[in-house]
Amino acid sequence: MATVLHIAASPRGERSKSLQVAKAFLDAYRQLAPGDNIMTLDLWTTELPAMDGPTLDAKYAILHGREKTEDQRRAWAAVEAVIAQFLAADKYVFSVPMWNFGIPYRLKHYFDVLIQPSYTFSFDPEHGYSGLVAGKPVAAIYARGGDYAAPEAARLDMQKSYVEAVLGFIGLRDVRSIVVEPTMAAGPDVAAERLSQALAEAEKLAQSFQ
Ligand SMILES: Cc1cc2nc3c(=O)[nH]c(=O)nc-3n(C[C@H](O)[C@H](O)[C@H](O)COP(=O)(O)O)c2cc1C
Q: Among 67, 109, 122, 130, which is least packed by CB within 10 angstroms?
């Protein structure tokens, strides 16, 4: 029985295109793998630890090979809980809106908590950086108001490229993507057509995600 963790980064509930596509993906997946455990982490209703004070000092203690103080250890436990939930999953689904060419700040906050030395990546002077979360597949669903398919627009896309860079850094290189765009810029008919294409892609992708 596999555990699938869906990390949801849109606050728009049923109006969210990335969530609609993620739901189609997970519904199709559930039908094919009814015994699997699917969990959703809604980043808009989940309190994440602030990366400051003793929490940040704990990170630097790890980076410099120093013992954590009691205060830092207590604060760091909240970071470890987020990482433990992530590492317990076998497969990941990210649903991600584009905000200002990048990702919503809640997802950035999640990455800032998740990506930690000796937990999700390692460094040594001889081999450099290595991801520690290898061998798990990711389905990444992106929604954008505009259309970034053309080369001159693609350079502004720091949403998909950033998510892939961050996931690759921690070892997740098997990232299968669905992009739904434009959800706004070309009007409601084009948006509806692109959404229905993405929903069909999601059902298909669920079959190879088993
Ligand atoms: C704060 C904010 C910033 C946005 N910035 C962009 C942007 O830079 N480029 C773009 O194409 N769309 C942008 N949009 C539009 C969203 O990408 C679009 O509505 C998308 O469908 C959101 O995903 P969702 O439907 O899953 O919430 C932005 C929307 C919000 C709320």
A: 67
